[in-house]
Amino acid sequence: MMNCKDCVHQVSDYLDGELDADLKHSLEEHLIFCHHCRVVVDSTRKTIDLYCDGKIFQLPDSVRDRLHSALRRKLEDGPR
Amino acid sequence: MEEQSPVAVSKDDFALVAEAKAGNYAAFEELVNRYENKIYRLGVNITGNSEDAEDVLQEAFLKAFKHLPEFREDSRFYTWLVRIAVNEGLMKLRKRKSDRLVPIADEVNEEGDVVPREFADWKPNPEELYAQAEIENILRDAAQTLPPAYRTVFLLRDVEGLSTAETADVLNLTEGTVKARLFRARLMLREELSKVFKRG
């Protein structure tokens, strides 16, 4: 059966769905019995989800306005 | 300014790039509207502050506009834009480093194991336990603990959704290096966030 060190090494590929069927089965079997590795898998998945949240670091309207003004000024400055 | 023809929102990037290259500014503006949020978020995550992120955003789009005729369309427009934005962000970090007496950590050790130390369960739905600004500070601070070489790989793969091959192309790395750095970045970030979000 897979040990904790091997499990941690495979976490990234597991979350990306890139493990072959046998390895995936071994890892999931290890997770049934190992609370620590289950925490590592769950919290790594949650880490990724938090950064992907569309509400995080939204572009402020004032910054958007300044960007579009800068681009229009560039356009009006003449040919590129 | 010349009257610009309207642009259908449903057009794909290739069509918009072709129109923008032909001089239709409205087409370029549609590309800006499509990606400005993502590029701003990338800027915040790379540089760690909103002022530098605004500079990254402006410079990335101004350079994309200027160099659009040279864009050969052998990659997605978005990937090309991300490459420009990442370079701008990393230049900001280098500039900041050269202004400091104490260097920031940007060396990476690709060898050795990443050993998890935090094994406590997380509180459920931590994003609902904190105000938006608090969550943003926590995530920004955690991202800043990573060496830039790991941070950029994590941001491009997990946050911006580039493939391993696209990330390797943008950062001039091998796909194997991208995968190794992504693994390390994910575990290092998890470790940092665990300190904040663990139960008890």
Explain what the structure shows.
The complex is a heterodimer of chains A (about 80) and B (about 200). By secondary structure, chain A is mainly α. Chain A has four helices and no strands. Chain A has a single domain (about 5-75), classed as Arc Repressor Mutant, subunit A, CATH 1.10.10. In chain A, α1 packs parallel to α3 and α2 (about 20-35) crosses α3 (about 35-50). Chain B folds into two domains: about 15-100, Rna Polymerase Sigma Factor, Chain: A (Orthogonal Bundle); about 125-195, Arc Repressor Mutant, subunit A. Helices cover about 65% and strands about 0% of the residues of chain B. Chain B has helices at about 15-20, 25-45, 50-65, 75-100, 130-145, 150-160, 165-170, 175-195. At the A-B interface, α1, α3 and α4 of A face α2, α3, α5, α6 and α8 of B.
Short description:
The complex is a heterodimer of chains A (80) and B (200). Chain A is mainly alpha-helical.
